[in-house]
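sry for the spam today, last one i promise. C-alpha cells for design, 848 residues
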C-alpha cells in the first residue's frame, strides 16, 4: 500500500508545478487523417526555412536526414539497419515490463532483402497499430498496442509564422511524446532517443562492402559529450577529425528541456557484430534507464538520451526532445565555391539554436497555431487547404537555402542525393505564390538576385544564377518566359510591400529586362506585342513563333511595366508599353485563338516566316507546341489576375480556353494513356495532361506533352477558379491531392523534376482565387470575393481573416505589420474608407 501511494505521489508531482516551466505542446489541429494503410510514404519535414530538415515518418520513424547541406531522401545516416536513429519506450509496473521502438508496424512490402535488413529498425519490436494526423507544420503519429498499458502520440513541428522568417527558420525538430496510461495502476515510463554521431557523413560519399551495400563515409574522430545549461540537458555531438571546411562538418544535439529523471550514454559498446544496439537494448529493457559505462572507441559513437517519469492511472505525461543542428559549410551548385548558410550566422552552434528556440517556443507555437487554426477555419474546401498548406514544406526542404546575406536561393527541386537543376530557375519559380504571400521579405531577395545580379547592362537576364553572388555574372542561359515573369513578380512584390525605394532602386534593371525583348532579332524586335524569335522556356526547349505561353507572359510584363513606369513618372515609356500591349492583345486573339483555345504559329528559326504545318514537305522544327492545347497556356493571365492587372486578352476567349483544357487535357483515368516520358500520374488516377492534340499532333512535339505535373495543374485550376469555374477547378485540385495519399506518395512532397519541387507552391494561388484576395500597399486597397464566408488572407508581412456576408465585410489583422486602407472592394462593390489603419489584433467592419 505504501509503495502504491508513493507512486501516485510521484505521478502527481510530475504533473504539477515542478514541471510548470517546461514547454509541452497544446492541442493541435487536424486537417488530414491517414489510417494504417496509408502511412508507408509519409515524411513530414521538420526544420526551418533554409536550414535543412529531418522528417517524421507516418509510423513515427525519423527519415530523410537532410540536415547537412545536401539532399538525402531515404538517407538515415547509416547503412540501412538497426543502427538508424530511433526513439524507444520502456514501461514497467509491478512485475510487468515492456520495451518497444516508438514506431508503427512493418508494411507488407518491407520484408524482402538479400541479408535480412529490408528496412531500418527491422529487428526492434514495434507498436501494432499506427495512424497519422497532419495540419502542416504539425504532424502527429498515433501509436497503440493491445499488449501495452499505454498509448503514445508523437507530435513533431517547427514554428511556421507568415511574415516572420527568422522565427520560422530554426534548425530544430521539436518532438514531443505524449504517453497516456490507459491502465488502472501507475506506470513507470522511459522514453529514450539514440543516434550514432554522423558528423562528416552526409550520404554524398558512399563506399561498397563485399555484399554490395552502400556504406556512408566521412565520420572521423567524432565525439559525444553530455551537456547541461540552465534549461536544457542533452548530448552534444561534434568532430575532432572531420575537415572543418567539409560541407558535413558541424555539430548536432539531442536535447530535452525536461527537469524529470534524465539518463544518458555518450557511447555504447563497440559495434562489432551489432553489439552497440545489443548493449543499449539489454540495459534499457531491463530497468528503463541507461548508465554511462563505455569509453568512445569508434569514429561514430552511439549516444542516447532518455527521460523517465511515473504516470498515474488514466493520465498523460509528455516527454519533449529537440533535435538541433549546425552545419555552416554550404557550397555552390557545383559544390566548388563556398556560399555558407544564413541560419549559421544567427547561432554559434546547435545547442544555442535549441536554447533560443526553447525560450521562445510557447509564443512561437501559439502564433503557429493561430496561423493554422485561422487558415483551417476558412471556407476553402479541404483539398485547397491541404494543397496550399502542405506544399509550404518546400521552403523547409533542401530545395531552398538562404545565403549569409539573406538571399533565398533554390534548386528547382532535389533528387535523392543531388540538387535538381540549379540557379533559382526563373521559369520554374515564376509559378509559385507561397513565398511572396507568406514571406514577402524572402520573395524580395529573389527579385534582388534576378535584377541586381542576373541582369546585365543590356537587360539580358540569366535564368539560372551562378554562385557566389559576389562574383561577376557572365552571360548564361536566357529564357523568354522566365524573364517576362520576373517583371510581373517584381510588380507584385512592389504592390504587396508598398516599398517605393524597392521600385526606385531596381526600376532601371527591370526596364532593361523588358526592353531586351526589342533588340534586333529579339523576341519582339518590331514591337508589335507578339513574341516571335527563339523562345527558350520551361518546357526546356526553344519555341519558334508566336505561342500563348510566352505571349501571355509578355503581355503581363508589358502591363506591369506600364504601371511601374507611371509610378516612376516615366510616362513616355508607360505609353509605349501600353501601345505595344494593346497591339499584342488584339493580335493574340485574332491569330492564335482557334475558336477553342490558343495555339502556336510556328515560324522558321532563320527567316521568322510562318510555316504551314499541314504541308507534308514543311521543315518543322522539333519540340514545338503547334496546334496542341497546352495546360498552362494562360499562365500569364493567371499571374495578371494575382497581380490585379486585369485581362490580357478577350475574357470570353479565356473562358473558352479553360473549358477546352477540361475537354481535351483532363483524363479521369490514366490507365489507358500512353506516356513515353515520366509518369507522375498512373493507373486509375486522374489529372490534366501537359498537352493535348485534338487536331493533328506534331511528329515530334514538345517533350513533356504526355506528362502531368502538379504545378502546371494548379496553374490551370487557379485559372478556372479565377473565371468562376469552381467545380472544375476544385476537381483538378482534389485529383492532385488524392494522388498524394501517404501510401503511394508522400503528402508533403509533390514531385516534378525532383522532390519538393518549387512549382508545386503554385498551390497557394488557389487560395487567392477563391478568396478574391488582392492587396496593394501602394494604392492602399484590398479586395475580396462577395461570396459569403470566412477567408484567411496574407500579404507577405501581415495576415488575418475576412468575414463576408451579404451586407457586411469585416477585415481582421491577426499578426504582422499594420495595414493602411483607403479602398475595400468586395466583388464588384468598391467601398471608400478614410485612412483605415488596422494593427494586429484589430478589425473593422464596412457595409457592402
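last one done:
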Amino acid at each position: 500500500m505504501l509503495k502504491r501511494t508513493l507512486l501516485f505521489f510521484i505521478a502527481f508531482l510530475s504533473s504539477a508545478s515542478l514541471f510548470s516551466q517546461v514547454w509541452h505542446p497544446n492541442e493541435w489541429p487536424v486537417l488530414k487523417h491517414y489510417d494504417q494503410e496509408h502511412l508507408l510514404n509519409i515524411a513530414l519535414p521538420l526544420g526551418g526555412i533554409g536550414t535543412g530538415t529531418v522528417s517524421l515518418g507516418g509510423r513515427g520513424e525519423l527519415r530523410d536526414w537532410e540536415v547537412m547541406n545536401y539532399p538525402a531522401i531515404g538517407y538515415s545516416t547509416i547503412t540501412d539497419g538497426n543502427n538508424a536513429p530511433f526513439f524507444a519506450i520502456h514501461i514497467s509496473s509491478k512485475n510487468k515490463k515492456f520495451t518497444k521502438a516508438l514506431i508503427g508496424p512493418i508494411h507488407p512490402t518491407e520484408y524482402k532483402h538479400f541479408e535480412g535488413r529490408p528496412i531500418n529498425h527491422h529487428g526492434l519490436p514495434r507498436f501494432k497499430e499506427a495512424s497519422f494526423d497532419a495540419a502542416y507544420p504539425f504532424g502527429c503519429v498515433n501509436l497503440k498496442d493491445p499488449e501495452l498499458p499505454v498509448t503514445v502520440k508523437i507530435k513533431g513541428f517547427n514554428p511556421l509564422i507568415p511574415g516572420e522568417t527568422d522565427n520560422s527558420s530554426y534548425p530544430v525538430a521539436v518532438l514531443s511524446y505524449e504517453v497516456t496510461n490507459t491502465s488502472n495502476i501507475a506506470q513507470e515510463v522511459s522514453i529514450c532517443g539514440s543516434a550514432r554521431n554522423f558528423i562528416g557523413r552526409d550520404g554524398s560519399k558512399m563506399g561498397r562492402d563485399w555484399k554490395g551495400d552502400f556504406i556512408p563515409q566521412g565520420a572521423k574522430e567524432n565525439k559525444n559529450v553530455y551537456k547541461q545549461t540552465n534549461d536544457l540537458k542533452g548530448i552534444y555531438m561534434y568532430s575532432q577529425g572531420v575537415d572543418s571546411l567539409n560541407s558535413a562538418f558541424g555539430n548536432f544535439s539531442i536535447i530535452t528541456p525536461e527537469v524529470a529523471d534524465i539518463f544518458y550514454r555518450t557511447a555504447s559498446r563497440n559495434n562489432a557484430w551489432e553489439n552497440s544496439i545489443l548493449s543499449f537494448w539489454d540495459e534499457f529493457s531491463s530497468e528503463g534507464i541507461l548508465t554511462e559505462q563505455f569509453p568512445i572507441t569508434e569514429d561514430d559513437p552511439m549516444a542516447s538520451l532518455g527521460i523517465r517519469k511515473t504516470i498515474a492511472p488514466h493520465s498523460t505525461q509528455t516527454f519533449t526532445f529537440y533535435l538541433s543542428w549546425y552545419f555552416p559549410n554550404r557550397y555552390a551548385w557545383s559544390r566548388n565555391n563556398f556560399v555558407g548558410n544564413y541560419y549559421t550566422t544567427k547561432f554559434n552552434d546547435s545547442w544555442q539554436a535549441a536554447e533560443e528556440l526553447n525560450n521562445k517556443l510557447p509564443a512561437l507555437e501559439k502564433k503557429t497555431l493561430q496561423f493554422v487554426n485561422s487558415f483551417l477555419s476558412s471556407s476553402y474546401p479541404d483539398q485547397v487547404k491541404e494543397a496550399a498548406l502542405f506544399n509550404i514544406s518546400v521552403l523547409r526542404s533542401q530545395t531552398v537555402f538562404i545565403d549569409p546575406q539573406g538571399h533565398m536561393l533554390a534548386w528547382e527541386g532535389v533528387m535523392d542525393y543531388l540538387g535538381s537543376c540549379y540557379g533559382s530557375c526563373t521559369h520554374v519559380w515564376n509559378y509559385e505564390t507561397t513565398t511572396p504571400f507568406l514571406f514577402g521579405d524572402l520573395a524580395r531577395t529573389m527579385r534582388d538576385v534576378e535584377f541586381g545580379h542576373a541582369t546585365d547592362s543590356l537587360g539580358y537576364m540569366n535564368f539560372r544564377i551562378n554562385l557566389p553572388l559576389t562574383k561577376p555574372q557572365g552571360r548564361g542561359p536566357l529564357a523568354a518566359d522566365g524573364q517576362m515573369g520576373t517583371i510581373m513578380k517584381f510588380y507584385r512584390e512592389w504592390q504587396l510591400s508598398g516599398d517605393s525605394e524597392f521600385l526606385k532602386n531596381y526600376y532601371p534593371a527591370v526596364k532593361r529586362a523588358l526592353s531586351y525583348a526589342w533588340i534586333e532579332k529579339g523576341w519582339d524586335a518590331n514591337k508589335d506585342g507578339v513574341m516571335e524569335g527563339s523562345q527558350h522556356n520551361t518546357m526546356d526547349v526553344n519555341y519558334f513563333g508566336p505561342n500563348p505561353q510566352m505571349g501571355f507572359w509578355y503581355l503581363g510584363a508589358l502591363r506591369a511595366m506600364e504601371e511601374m513606369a507611371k509610378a516612376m513618372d516615366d510616362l513616355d515609356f508607360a505609353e509605349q508599353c501600353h501601345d505595344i500591349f494593346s497591339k499584342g492583345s488584339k493580335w493574340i486573339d485574332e491569330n492564335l485563338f482557334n475558336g477553342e483555345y490558343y495555339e502556336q504559329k510556328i515560324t522558321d528559326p532563320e527567316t521568322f516566316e510562318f510555316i504551314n504545318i499541314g504541308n507534308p514537305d514543311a521543315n518543322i522544327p522539333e519540340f514545338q507546341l503547334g496546334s496542341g492545347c497546352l495546360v498552362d497556356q494562360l499562365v500569364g493571365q493567371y499571374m495578371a489576375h494575382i497581380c490585379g492587372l486585369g485581362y490580357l486578352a478577350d475574357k470570353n476567349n479565356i473562358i473558352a480556353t479553360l473549358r477546352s483544357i477540361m475537354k481535351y487535357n483532363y483524363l479521369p483515368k490514366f490507365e489507358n494513356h500512353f506516356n513515353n516520358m515520366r509518369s507522375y500520374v498512373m493507373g486509375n488516377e486522374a489529372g490534366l495532361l501537359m498537352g493535348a492534340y485534338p487536331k493533328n499532333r506534331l511528329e515530334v512535339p514538345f517533350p513533356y506533352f504526355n506528362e502531368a505535373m502538379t504545378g502546371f495543374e494548379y496553374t490551370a485550376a487557379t485559372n478556372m477558379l479565377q473565371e468562376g469555374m469552381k467545380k472544375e477547378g476544385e476537381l483538378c485540385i482534389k485529383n492532385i491531392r488524392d494522388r498524394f495519399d501517404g501510401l503511394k506518395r508522400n503528402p508533403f512532397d509533390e514531385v516534378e523534376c525532383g522532390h519538393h519541387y518549387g512549382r508545386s507552391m503554385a498551390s497557394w494561388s488557389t487560395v487567392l482565387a477563391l478568396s478574391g484576395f488582392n492587396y496593394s500597399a501602394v494604392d492602399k486597397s484590398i479586395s475580396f470575393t462577395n461570396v459569403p464566408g470566412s477567408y484567411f488572407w496574407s500579404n507577405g508581412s501581415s495576415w488575418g481573416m475576412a468575414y463576408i456576408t451579404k451586407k457586411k465585410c469585416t477585415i481582421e489583422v491577426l499578426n504582422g505589420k499594420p495595414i493602411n486602407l483607403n479602398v475595400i472592394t468586395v466583388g464588384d462593390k468598391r467601398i471608400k474608407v478614410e485612412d483605415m489603419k488596422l494593427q494586429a489584433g484589430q478589425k473593422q467592419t464596412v457595409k457592402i
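The mean pLDDT is 95. ok im logging off now
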